Amino acid sequence: MAKIMLSAKEKQILNFIQGDLPLKSSPYSSLAKKLNIEEKKVVEIIALLKERGYIRRFGALLSHDLVGLRANCMCVWNIPEERIEEVGKICSKEKAISHCYLRASKPDWPYNFYTMVHAKTKSECKKIITEISKKCEVDGFKMLFTLKKFKKTSPTYRV
To answer: N or C terminus of the chain with fewer C-beta within 10 Å?
Structure first.
């Protein structure tokens, strides 16, 4: 992977927009002042960074438990290596799945594919996982439900 070359202004903008934006009509005004540019230019740089793929998406992040999605399950799957891409594509299209990863399995832990499933109830979560299992034709999985939340924040990357 090629090293990303960002200007100092681009880095400052990326660091700023990862946090909570001020709820005001000109959310970038303080940053623009700090960077000694017009707020319009900040918006243009953000659009350019998104166009280049440095920003995947730009939007609000819901507190899923506060909007009724209280059941969270890390489902671990034992997927044959030759089916990883196929299953990955199926799972990545599922709306109830927020995270979908391939990881190394171990002799005492055969699970190599991880999905985070969110639903209103545990039984709804189980139903979604069962449907995914049928769709993917995979029986080797375990459901690991969240018992207690210790930290729930979005990652912040300092560039």
So the answer is: N
The CA distance from 148 to 145, in Å, is 9
SS3 content of the chain, % helix, strand, coil (to 5): 35, 15, 45
35 φ, ψ (degrees, to nearest 5): -85, -5
Cα dihedral across residues 105, 103, 119, 121: positive or negative: positive
Kindly report the number of other CB atoms within 10 A of residue 136's CB atom: 19
CATH no., domain 71-145: 3.30.70.3460
The model's pLDDT over 14-73, given as tens digits with 9 standing for 90+, comes to 999 988 888 899 999 999 999 999 999 999 999 999 999 889 888 877 777 788 888 999
In the chain, where the domains are located = 8-52, 71-145
Report pLDDT digits (tens) over 96-130: 999 999 999 999 999 999 999 999 999 999 999 99
Percent of the chain clearing pLDDT 70 (strictly above)? 97
| Host H or E run for residue 52 | helix 39-52
Q: Provide the β-strand partners of residue 145.
A: 73
